[in-house]
Amino acid sequence: MAKPGRGAYPILFLTVVVLVSVVALTLIDGITSERILEAQADEVKQMLGSLFPSLDSYELSNDTGRYAVLEDGSRIGIAFMTQAIGYGGPIDILVGLGPDHTLRGIRIISQQETPGLGARIVETGFLDQYVGLAVDDLALRKDGGSVDAITGATISSTAVTDRLREAILEMIEEGGDGP
Amino acid sequence: MNQWMKALTNGIVRANPTFILLLGLCPTLAVSTSVDNAFGMTASVLFVLLAANVIVSLLRKWIPDRVRIPTFIVIIATLVTIVDLALKAFVPPLSKSLGMYVPLIVVNCIILGRAEAFASKNSTWHSVADAIGMSIGFGVAILLVSFFRQLLGSGSIEAFNVRLFSIPGLADNPAAIFLLPMGAFFVIGILLALFRWLGVSECE
Amino acid sequence: MSELVAIFFGMALVNNMVLSKFLGLCPFFGVSKKLSSAFSMGIAVLLVMLVASAVTWPLFHYLLVPYGFEFMRTVIFILVIASLVQIIEMTIKRTNMTLYNALGIYLPLITTNCAVLGITFINIDAQYSFIQALTAALGAGAGFTLVLLIMSGIRERLDLADIPRVFRGAPIAFLVAGLLGMAFLAFGGMVR
């Protein structure tokens, strides 16, 4: 069968290929998109659960972007995402607060800090420091607070701590007692 | 059978895509920070390469020469998107790890290269062999690089959530530089020189 | 404005496409042997990145997203890039034969340059505005060209140096790239 090379055949062929591709992908997307959303929701629940072990469910407010964490239907705290500018790029932080605005804890969702140094902000040793801290304690020790920076990673440690303080103060100012 | 085996082993040693042809370096260096990533990437590449080779080979008599490359590209891009969506849906942690390097498989010279150089000119059966061989070659290469980077960079090897082994002194004070991009360059540079020295590959 | 400057330098130096994102490696090791071809290649890539970003961004935000076709991203973007490269190739062929010959086979290869497709993805994932996306593309292209120039300068010298047989060519190039990457690490604290 001779390979037709002239006329509209090449363009037609390519168009058909593209159409097949669109159809195939639409199908696959249909199959996977629900799963993907589920996986994302699971992930959020898992993250919130690590900060609030007794969590039953949560509600996301579309206005404030904050999560209300619920146990047995009553609110036990709130959580929200914030972003600090670290040494190597943005650091996405999940912040969990108790009813009185003390920190339940934080989780580092994503970061691009230096492995072995700034990247150690994900270690429990560093993160545990934040548990139970009030806004006033949110500074490095050298600045009068209660947070020990990671040796050799002052910028990363400061970035996280400062951003936390700012974010919580912002929230309190907005009168936010939650979503 | 001999021909088939030849096509298969070609991709593993003689024309190893990474170490000899120097193709597909982007993903190799980028995701080779852990052995898990290496397996994930190899599996993805295997799927795309195999499917692409088969499809191109089946259609080879109908693909017009003028739109040859765009056709290959659309086929490969579609397959890559399928893998990307599948990973996101069924193995989210791996998808996060591999990140945008999964969709970037579409410009991985290995796949486009094989479609052009082999699948469009050979039977489907042989194209299968070529795909498997090239994927194994790629897999071996990326595994090797990941192994060293993970070992030196974090002191231990963990695969599929099982800690396989760790080097006592190194685990506490790993040479983190190997997890950084430049570590990848160092490892692959040394491995390339090693293969030359072993006489496996030829001098430039 | 300062944000744009930060994005530019971030893309060019701190998160350099080649040295820290590993994008654009194939041409990197192929073309960087001579200074002059390195420069032409770098500029060509920069141009493609700019135009590709300018086209793919609106395509994604005004066509794909509203109709729920985000998953077609990879297919559409790579087709756009392939077409752009074709067009640029034809334009250069008609206007500047010397340049065309200098770039040779590397011009069509820009299509498979991970850096070009990569920057179009980054523009979307980082949720850049249109202007930010263009700035990022500019920075990425500039960074790519810079590294290409440095590498080719070094490689021109290396060719004259006495290097052990097993390291000649690709291996030493990688090691040099690694060292270059380490040097670029120094840009780390720059964007604050």
Description:
The complex is a heterotrimer of chains A (179), B (204) and C (192). Chain A is α+β, with helices and mostly antiparallel strands. Chain A has 3 helices and 5 strands; from the N terminus they run αβββββαα. Chain B has one domain (2-197). Chain B contains 9 helices and 2 strands. A two-stranded antiparallel ribbon of chain B has the order 1-2. In chain B, α1 (2-14) runs parallel beside α7. Chain C is globular. At the B-C interface, α2, α4 and α9 of B face α2, α4, α7 and α9 of C.
What's the rounded overall pLDDT mean of chain A?
A: 81
The total strand number of chain B stands at: 2
Structural class of chain B: mainly alpha
Strand runs of chain A, count? 5
- Please state the CA-atom Rg of chain A, rounded to the nearest Å: 24 Å
Low-confidence spans of chain A: pLDDT under 50, at least 5 residues?
none
Terminal residue distance of chain B: 32 Å
Key traits:
heterotrimer, B: 204 residues, mainly alpha, two-stranded antiparallel sheet, 4% strand, C: 192 residues, 9 helices, 0% strand
TL;DR of this structure?
The complex is a heterotrimer of chains A (179), B (204) and C (192). With 179 residues, chain A is of the alpha+beta class. Chain A is built from three helices and five strands; from the N terminus they run αβββββαα.
Please render the helix and strand layout as text.
The complex is a heterotrimer of chains A (179), B (204) and C (192).
Chain A: H1 9-51, E1 57-60, E2 67-71, E3 74-85, E4 90-97, E5 103-110, H2 124-127, H3 154-173
Antiparallel strand pairs in A: 1-2, 2-3, 3-4, 4-5
Chain B: H1 2-14, H2 25-31, H3 35-59, H4 68-90, H5 92-98, H6 109-119, H7 124-154, E1 156-159, E2 162-166, H8 168-172, H9 181-197
Antiparallel strand pairs in B: 1-2
Helix pairs in contact in B: 1-7, 3-4, 3-6, 3-7, 4-5, 4-6, 6-7, 7-9
Chain C: H1 2-14, H2 25-31, H3 35-64, H4 73-95, H5 97-103, H6 106-109, H7 114-125, H8 130-158, H9 170-185
